[in-house]
Each structure stands twice: as structure tokens, then as C-alpha cells.
Amino acid sequence: MNEIQGAGVALVTPFNADGTIDFETLEQLIEFQIKEGMNYLVSLGTTGETATLSTEERKQVWKFTADKVNGRLPLIAGIGGNNTLEIVQQIQDFDTNGYCAILSVSPYYNKPTQEGIYQHYKAIAAASKLPIILYNVPGRTGSNMTAATTVRLANDFSNIVAIKEASGSFSQFSEILRDKPENFQLISGDDPATLPMMALGAIGVISVIGNAYPKLVADLVKKCQEGNYEEARTIHSQLLDITDLCFVEGNPAGVKYILRQKNIGDDTVRLPLVKISEPTQVQIQKEMAKLK
Predict the structure, then answer these.
(1) CATH of domain 2-226
(2) Which of 40, 135, 213, 257 is catalytic?
């Protein structure tokens, strides 16, 4: 867990205008993150539009990212979904070279019971050579992984080491922090919640807006780590509006538009996502001007 303290970013997957993967821009994005002070990277989290990538494309992105990072930062692979047997197979086939952990989103659409969620992660834990980070994002998956289930998994499987929490429930965050084993960690999965979650005891964030503003996110997390919440609040406030705008028409369309304005690739997304509308573009441009 020492490798994944602080500010992490769930990298977008850049696409060319024809929808193919833009590896040149992906390299540019990786270098941007390293230069601006990100502590670790997540390759093909859900922000990477993983659900619309083929098996071969995922393998290409993971290998390319590991090769370009080349050990300069810790690297986490996103491998999750709602077909447990398929995810187990992906994890067993995964080339772990260059990676230190797997981030696995709770099953979506199926709406499993808490026992179903537990058994899903039990199977993943048994299959993985790398530590597992749980990911709870009920606004996307349609079901919440309760604090009790999280703590049960943390107690039962030594290679389940953390949770990326995006439930928005501070009661749930607090229960996890109160009941978890000592070596299990809480990570913010929602940019606007990072500061208050770290005040409670979270160790950092896996960020979306960090794709476009890695230095601000890294500085925010560092200030929280130092207990300097006054300066952290200033950065938190600066990022609030632009972060909200990134999600009004679907993630990662918003943050890809910001990256395009920074000359980091195109803002192409794969269907069923589409580019953000002109009114949202105008609002984002106004917020970008403030951040300059």
C-alpha cells in the first residue's frame, strides 16, 4: 500500500477522430502526469472507457502504458465487470509486468446481493497475483457495496488491500474507517469528496479531473497529508465547478474536452458516449480561464 498513497489518476483512453486508440496522445498524457507530480496511475479504470474496448485493445493499452511508464510511477490496472468468470479469466491472463495492483469495479447492472458481491470478489482474490483494490460506485453500477461487505472482504482476504469509495455516503466512509483492519485503506473515488474524506482518514484519491489538472490534484492531496487544510480548501474550491462540469454530459467526455483545449489529443469518445454540447463547452472554457 505504500506504493499507492496520495494522488492517483484514472487515465482516459485517447482516441483518434476515427475512433482508433491514439497511442501518441496516451504517451503525451502519461508524461504530463509524471511531470506534474501525480503519485500513481490507473490504466483502464472505468474512466478509460474500458467497456467499449476489445480484449486485444485492452492488452495493447496495458502493455503500452507499462512500457512508457517504465517503473517511474506505480501503475494499477483496472480489471472489473459483471461477468465474474470472465473477470477471473482476464486476471489470470493479465501480464502483471509493470503493475503493482488491480482496481476492480463492483458488478454493474446485475444488481447482486451483498453475498453475491462478496462471492464475486472472493473469486477475484483467489485468481489474482496482485493486490486488489475494490471499487464501489453505486451511481454507475446500480448497487451499493455496504461498509459491512467491504470490511468482511478486507478481513477475509489479505490481498484485498483498499477500496476506492464513490458512494457519496460519509456515514459509509466512517463505518469503513472504524471497522476495517489496520492495513486496509480507504481511497476517495470522487474528486469533490477528497478533502473531507482525507480529513476522516482516507489516504488519497483516484482522480478524474487529475487527467487535466494533475498538479492541482497532487497539491491538494499533499496539503491534506500535511494537515494543511486551509490551503487544501483553496484548491478544493478552485476545482469544484470545473469538476462538476466534467460530469454533466458523461465521463470522460468533459475531461477529454479540457485535454483537447490543452492540446493533449482529441475529445473523441466511443458510442454510446458522445462529445459534450456547445453550451457545456462554453461553461468549461470560462472555468478554464479562471484556473489560468
Answers:
(1) 3.20.20.70
(2) 135
